[in-house]
Task: structure prediction
Amino acid sequence: MSARTRIKLCGLSRPQDVAAAVALGADAIGLVFYPPSPRHVSPSLAADLLAQLPAFVTAVGLFVNPELSEVQACIAAAPISMLQFHGDETPQDCAAIAEQVRRPFLRALRIRPTTTAADLLEFEHAYRTSSPLFAGLLLDTWSDAYGGTGKVFDWSLIPAELAHRAVLSGGLNAQNATDAVRRLRPHAVDVSSGIESAKGVKDVALMRAFIAAVRSADHE
Result:
């Protein structure tokens, strides 16, 4: 039996995009609670977007250096089932918030050209030992700003012993997703700008093509 790569479609901000993601078989959707982002959603909009979300599709809330009260407000308004920290949060920061709101969390790591395999393993170990609620690393491309860059980093930096439990992000699209999954066999992939027709505007055809590209690698 072939492995099945989990797929997260991130930065959704319209009801029709959430509906399309579900219909196309996405395993998770990501909502961005970071006001500077063009994909930002408010807690009230998040509630509307998730109102019809079916069982077994994970709703991930993306935060950047949040206060506990900010996360609590979002969870009180909408059924967010997993947190994603995308700023400069320490292991202790992530653990404290996750434990207060009783949600598992992903930690995004923006990978620099100078990052080594040992750095990745050390980073993961620090967060994994910080809390039983740690769910894994999301590997993204380095940027001075927070959020995605739409650019690919050097995948060879990812050690084999980490790849199978990591979430691969950073510049993925329908053109490179098959190769990425074939080469790394990550646990999951995450895409945002690669399924957009304009910044913050998702395109159903691109969503469909991306998922098909991942499944193509799965079936090899």
Remarks:
- Helices lie at 15-24, 43-50, 68-77, 91-101, 117-128, 160-163, 177-184, 204-218.
- The first strand starts at residue 6 and ends at 10.
